Amino acid sequence: MSTLLGEYLNSLKIVKDKIRELANVKRPRMNDLNNKETAKPTPEEFYKIIYLAIISAGLPDSEFGNAIETIFPTRPKGSLLIDFKHLPKEIQFLKKYTLRQNEVEEKIGMSENKISRLANEKTKDLLAVELICFIEGLGENVLDTFKRIYGPIETVDSSLPSASILNDRTNKVVQYIAAYNDMKVDNMVENLADHVLFENISNNEVTLSIQGKDAFREQAIEALSYFSEREQAIGSITHTYNSTKIVINYKAIAAMDFPNGLKKGDEISLKGKSIFEFSEDGKIVRLTDIS
Length: 291
Hints:
- It is built from 13 helices and 6 strands.
- The protein is of the alpha+beta class.
- The chain folds into 2 domains: 1-157, no CATH class; 163-290, Nuclear Transport Factor 2, Chain: A, CATH 3.10.450.50.
- The longest helix has 19 residues, at 163-181.
- The protein is globular.
- This is Nuclear transport factor 2 family protein.
- Pfam families: SnoaL_2.
């Protein structure tokens, strides 16, 4: 029977043994973490395994919070600073760094005097969920804090997948562009993951962000009324380990008046790029349009 951590990794459809190697976790230990409720991950194990899995699945950093919620749904939640909210901000700051040990242990579900034992190196069994609860209790971002403690993880692998995988990706990208040009939404979403993230970036600002295949479909259907004609022409294709970038030449004819001054019948012509990020099972998990 899988643990919640194991079930979460299974849901990402990634190669867990590759993640294990990159996280430098021994195979028996990884098996226990995936299958035995008595095996509790340390903070560093949790950070490396989950973050590498998220990168491998092509998911954004925000997924780290979702992973915590999925794997530790019953963890103690609450602010360690709530009792100080009435105090001046500078006093709140001082209180943040002078919290009483016994109150911290009680509020985050840690055994009595465990912090002292950890500080005296009499035990090294700090659990991921304990540190997570402490970080959350201070109102800090868990992933950012883990990065500060253990260092950033830049990438899973700089090498390219096999030629067959790259060919499959290319075909899916070409199919998506063809469906976009033909205004066939069902074909556009055929290879999208259920949790796909779509973002449109213009002038270095995110102008649209959509999470989920159903929400993407709704927006794509609505966008059909924007233009009487539209065409994306692929100029080049570049592959990385888990993504494919295309440079595009875009042309369209407006079918309505837009708030930015564009009038019905006006022609648009611009260059941009789209980045398709793929999961291990070949689904598009993130699509970013940049102009």
